[in-house]
Specification:
about 325 residues, 10-stranded mixed beta sheet, 12 strands, alpha/beta, globular, Isopropylmalate Dehydrogenase, about 20% strand, 11 helices
Length: about 325
């Protein structure tokens, strides 16, 4: 039996994830789902945001559907999603950006970089260590190369090697791995890449880059498709997989029922494809496109639909 852990998290995660899971669960009632409460809301109640038992439970799932987490400016609070990524070794963050005439996959190294968690504060400064390792760079390069091979497309290596020495290591390893695999590739400085991606999105297929650059670049790419409410992502390791919308918990609109659930629904579609149900993932994407073309949109896209009503429209289009 397929087991799926469902973590709504904080803020609008508690609104968009139930909508996404309703669609997935309706398509696959045979799935065994279980909820795990993690995040800031739990931390406020109990002083703990995510426990060892929670991680153990997540390891028992075939896939994880994750919402959004609020990370307060409190030195005692550790990021839940970063902790989960590290403890499950979800080293490849896949962020698709697809629109008219372009189909881009941003592959973000997900386990180290500036999000390595090695941080401390001193009297007159705060320090964060940027970790770029040979093994971390090699395995994310190989993951990106596999995707480029599957898609039959060019590989772009985003970096800042002209300034940051650790990016020299990352760039050189990615270039070496791509050359060894016989994949067409080009190394580009991340700042000029961000601009050109917006100007000429059809020129790109798979982009691989380091943790924080991938985070920023994929958010920038949201401009091409209507904003962060449209972007899904997958966090993939050798044993575990977690799927989440790119957007955050958006506390400014939480509880109003107006959050865009498309990113969460698309994340659910990526989960289904990972579990071997690619046809359902394709059907979900087609339903989303049809519903939007009919003018059923949440306020961020200029419409009047609620989170719930958009989800119901997608279900109706799917006939479930």
């Amino acid at each position: 039996m397929t087991r799926v852990a469902v973590l709504s998290g904080d803020g609008i995660g508690q609104e968009v994830i139930p909508v996404a899971w309703d669609i997935i669960g309706s398509l696959h009632p045979e799935f065994d789902s279980f909820e795990v409460e993690v995040g800031y809301a739990r931390w406020k109640k109990s002083g703990v945001a995510c426990t060892d038992d929670d991680i153990t439970a997540l390891k028992e799932a075939d896939a994880i559907l994750f919402g959004a987490i609020t990370t307060p400016p409190d030195p005692c609070y550790r990021s839940v999603i970063l902790g989960i990524r590290q403890r499950l070794d979800l080293y490849a963050n896949l962020r698709p950006v697809k629109g008219n005439g372009f189909d881009i996959m941003i592959v973000r190294e997900n386990s180290e970089g500036l999000y390595s968690g090695i941080e401390w504060q001193e009297k007159d400064r705060a320090c964060t260590v940027r970790v770029v390792s040979v093994e971390g760079s090699r395995r994310i390069a190989r993951a990106a190369i596999r995707l480029a091979e599957e898609r039959g497309c060019h590989l772009t290596i985003g970096n800042k090697a002209n300034v940051i020495k650790s990016d020299v290591l990352f760039r050189d390893i990615c270039c070496h791995e791509a050359a060894e695999a016989g994949v067409s590739f080009e190394a580009c400085y991340i700042d000029s890449l961000a601009l050109d991606l917006l100007l000429h999105p059809a020129s790109y297929g798979v982009i691989v880059t380091t943790n924080i650059f991938g985070d920023i670049l994929s958010d920038v790419a949201g401009y091409l498709v209507g904003g962060l409410g449209m972007l899904p992502s997958a966090n993939i390791g050798d044993r575990y997989a977690l799927f989440e919308p790119v957007h955050g918990s958006a506390p400014d609109i939480a509880g109003q029922g107006i959050a865009n659930p498309v990113a969460a629904i698309r994340s659910g579609a990526m989960l289904l494809e990972y579990l071997g149900h690619k046809d359902d993932a394709i059907r979900i994407e087609a339903a989303i496109q049809t519903v939007i073309k009919r003018g059923i949109k949440t306020p961020d896209l200029g419409g009047m639909a609620t989170t719930q009503s958009f989800g119901e429209a997608v279900k109706a289009e799917l006939g479930i």
